[in-house]
Write a structure and sequence with these properties.
single chain; alpha/beta; D-Maltodextrin-Binding Protein, domain 2; 3-stranded parallel β-sheet; 45% helix
Length: 384
């Protein structure tokens, strides 16, 4: 297996690291990185088609990649896992070279046919990835029949976002139950899928029943019945359902939400945009935690370029660029070294200086029957 020092893109990233590129400005400094390699790439008119979540890859990152490699990035964005899966299902795996599905949804990709190609680990800069996350991804759905299909990109959580001028929640003393207190009637925003899962974990107290629910349909129905009953009793608490980042922003900035079960990235960005009015915390029971990955579709037209892109965005500098922009956490080893002080401060607040990391509740791999069953409960929740 090659290490990152054996990859042309990683060699460029090494020079990029030594010049402290993020501090100097990506576009200008990268013009000096591996110029011979970049000139050859430009002459070949290379490109890579990337389909990614709408707040993951910045223009700074794509410009830096093009400057280092000469490869043009054609970027398209989506807002949900179902959206990207449906697009690739319709095209039978063609049209894009890199996609970013959540690892626990990959079983649906496998069940849909040959939409993805196995990852050639010899072409991946494995040393770029935090070892624990590289290994953890195996248990969460990154492999099928002994072959890896996904490279970790980032991880994040869904916890409690709140208006700190109206609520006084604090690190280490906040629970899922606080979302559903009487004072929050009519001012809560949630994603139905996440709300039902959080309710299941909350009512169980340990998350063990929710774990078992992903394996046994009888247990799944029992847990979801309990969660749905609680959800129905508290339906009047809901100000707005959300499904993507813009909807979270709209809930707090325009629609009067004061509390929500929300992704950490949009919540932390709202924290910055509102000068600390909106804050974000992991509840004591453990925030819902997901891992997003990079995969190469079976019909990818630019496979070499796809591997170069994957290796570049998992360098520590690009991992930090992603984290500083999105508020999510990079899977790139060493990214914390390049985090802005503001991002590090918010991370420490959200997870009580790291004490709540051990309590994180990881989303589990989802067989198709479980996804279909949960969708029934989601529709009942939304329609009530």
């Amino acid at each position: 297996m090659e290490t990152k020092a054996n990859h042309p893109t990683a060699l460029a990233a090494g020079e990029f690291r030594r010049r402290t590129l993020l501090k100097a400005g990506a576009a200008g400094a990268l013009a000096t990185v591996a110029p011979g390699f970049a000139r050859r790439a430009v002459a070949q008119d290379r490109e890579v088609d990337v389909y990614v979540w709408n707040d993951y890859v910045t223009e700074e990152m794509t410009n830096a990649f093009t400057e280092a490699t000469g490869i043009q990035v054609n970027l398209s964005v989506y807002g949900t896992n179902n959206e990207v899966l449906n697009v690739l299902r319709a095209s039978q795996g063609a049209g894009y070279d890199v996609v970013f599905p959540s690892v626990t949804t990959l079983q649906a990709w496998y069940d849909a046919g040959d939409l993805l190609q196995p990852i050639d680990e010899g072409r991946v800069a494995v040393d770029n990835i935090v070892p624990a996350i590289w290994e953890r991804s195996l248990d969460l759905g990154a492999t099928r029949r002994g072959q890896r299909y996904a490279v970790p990109f980032n991880w994040g959580t869904e916890g409690v976002a709140f208006d700190s001028t109206e609520r006084d929640y604090a690190p280490g003393s906040t629970s899922w139950n606080d979302v559903w207190s009487d004072e929050n009637s009519g001012v809560v925003t949630v994603r139905p899928r996440s709300a039902l899962t959080a309710m299941g974990v909350m009512l169980d107290g340990t998350g063990e029943m929710m774990d078992q629910a992903h394996q046994e349909e009888a247990v799944a129905r029992e847990v979801l019945d309990q969660a749905l009953e609680f959800a129905m009793e508290h339906k009047s608490w809901i100000r707005q359902f959300w499904k993507d980042t813009p909807a979270i922003q709209n809930a707090f900035l325009q629609n009067g939400a004061l509390v929500g079960i929300c992704w950490d990235g949009p919540s932390l960005n709202l924290w910055r945009e509102t000068d600390g009015r909106i804050k974000y915390l992991s509840p004591n029971e453990g925030a819902l935690t997901w891992l997003d990955t990079m995969c190469i579709p079976s019909g990818a037209a630019h496979v070499d370029e796809a591997y170069e892109f994957i290796n570049f965005v998992t360098t520590s500098e690009m991992g930090a660029a992603h984290a500083n922009h999105s508020g999510y956490n990079s899977a790139a080893s060493g990214a914390a070294e390049f985090l802005e002080a503001d991002a590090q401060e918010k991370f420490n607040y959200a997870y009580n200086n790291g004490e709540l990391i051990a309590n994180l509740y990881w989303w589990k791999p989802e067989p198709q029957w479980f996804q279909q069953l949960r969708q029934e409960y989601i529709e009942r929740y939304e329609a009530a």
